[in-house]
Design goal:
Elements: H1 15-31, H2 45-51, H3 55-63, H4 73-83, H5 86-94, H6 109-116, H7 119-127, H8 142-146
Helix pairs in contact: 2-3, 4-6, 5-7, 6-7
Pfam families: Ank, Ank_2
InterPro entries: Ankyrin_rpt (IPR002110), Ankyrin_rpt-contain_sf (IPR036770), KAT/AKT (IPR045319)
GO cellular component, one term: monoatomic ion channel complex
């Protein structure tokens, strides 16, 4: 395809060269066993790939041994659930995040999904192994939340 677009093999800034170089860097970088390198915010390359929705890059990084290294995973997942970011949730769970990780109030992402009425998020979390018996700081489970209709928002798909 790139040769049909008049890509020159001598021009080193073409799409072909950029993609080949990116693949080379990823595969050789992780061959050096630097899987947990982070930026100044503590984000790993795998976490950045998941955040940006680069599924193929995330799969490649994970296959080379990269880790999410998601500090405060509960807070990150709860925020993503409250924003309705199912792609991030799906990616974080696929690459090792604990669906029962808790935020500062000891709420799990499933607590947030139930309270916000996010059926799809709740199903995604339960399918990933989230416990409906996990308790928050007030010792309430998801079942407690669901038994008080006034505290819940309408179900959203």
């Amino acid at each position: 395809m790139l040769t049909r677009q008049n890509a020159s093999l001598q021009q080193f800034s073409s799409f072909l060269h950029i993609h080949l170089y990116s693949y080379y860097v990823i595969t050789h970088f992780y061959a050096l066993n630097l899987c947990l390198i982070t930026d100044k915010f503590g984000n790993t390359p795998l976490l950045e790939a998941v955040k940006q929705g680069h599924e193929r890059v995330a799969t490649l990084l994970f296959s080379k041994g990269a880790k999410l290294n998601l500090e405060n995973a509960g807070s990150h997942l709860c925020i993503a659930v409250s924003k309705g970011d199912s792609d991030f949730i799906r990616g974080a769970l696929a690459y090792g995040s604990d669906p029962d990780s808790k935020d500062y109030d000891h709420r799990t992402p499933l607590h947030i999904a139930a309270a916000e009425g996010f059926y799809i998020m709740a199903k995604l979390l339960v399918d990933a192994g989230a416990s409906v018996l996990a308790t928050d700081r007030y010792h309430q489970t998801i079942l407690h939340l669901l038994s008080v209709p006034s505290s819940l928002k309408p179900l959203r798909v």
